[in-house]
Amino acid sequence: MKKILYIGLFFLTLISCEEVFFEEDLEEEMINLLAPIDEAIVRNTAVTFSWEPVDQATEYLLQVAQPNFENATQIVLDTTVTSVSFTSNLIKNEYEWRIRAQNSGSSTPYATAKFTVLENEEFSARQVVLTAPENNALNNTNETILQWQNVTDATSYKIQLLNSSNEVVQEETTTDTSITITFPEGVTQWQVRAENNTQNTFYSTRTITIDSEAPKQPVNSAPANDATLTETTVNFSWTRETVAGTAEFDSIFIYKDVGLTQLATKDRVTSPSEIALETSTTYYWFIKAFDEAGNESESGTVSRFTIN
To answer: Which domain of life is it from (predicted)?
Structure first.
C-alpha cells in the first residue's frame, strides 16, 4: 500500500497540528528506463537518456559512471532534471547510468543500465549538444551567453543567428564551447555546428525571444484622486499604451496609508475592475505593468480616495 507523507506546522499555543500539504511516498514506486537499455550499444557520442514519468515526482536525479558504479573511475554526469529525457556528449567507452525519481520527501530506488558508446568515425555524423539557454527561452536582456557541449576532435564552432525568413543575420566562430551574443529584439533562431580542418557537423538549433522594453506607465482614470465614495465595491479603471513584444499585464496595489506600508490588497487585474474594500477607510492606489519577459513599468501615480 502506498504511504502518504503528511507535513504539518506545530504551534506551541495549539494542541494539534495543522496540515499544510502532502506528497505521495515514492519509495515503493519503480522507474522504467526507455533508452539506453541494459547492454545497449550507442553509435553516437550524443547520448539521449530517456525514462517514463513517475506520478508525484517533481524531479529526477541522473548519474553516469565510467565504466560502472561498482568500480567507477569517474562519475561523468551527475545532474537533476525535471523533464523525462536528457542529452549528453560522451566519448567512446563503457558506461553505467542510473536514474531515480524524487520529490521533497522521498525517492524511488535507482533504475540502472549499462551501455557502450562507439564513437562514429565520421566527424560529420557527430552532434553538437546545446545546453543553454533552453529552447524557446525568453530573455529581457539582449546580451546572452550561448553554451554547448564539447565535440571530440572539433577545432572550432560556427554560430549563426537567423531571422524569421531563415536568413543568416550574424555569424561568429569560436574555439570555446560558449560565446556571448547580442541578440536583436524579437524571435531569433540560433544554431551551432562543430568544425575541424576538413569536415563539419550538422547545425544544432534553438530559438530565443528577446524583449528588453518595459511596458508603459499606466495612467489612473477612476476613482478620481481625493474622491469620496459611499459604496464598498469600488470600480477601478486606467489606461496604458501597449508596447510591441511579449504579453503585458497589470497589477493593482492598494494601501491604507500614505507611506504605502499597510497593503490592503494586490492583484493582477484588467481595466475596469471591481474590488470590495472596507468602509470608513482612506485608500491609496496605483497600477504597475509587467510583461512575460520580466520587464516592469514605472509605478503609476498614487491616487487617494475615501469610503465613508
So the answer is: Bacteria
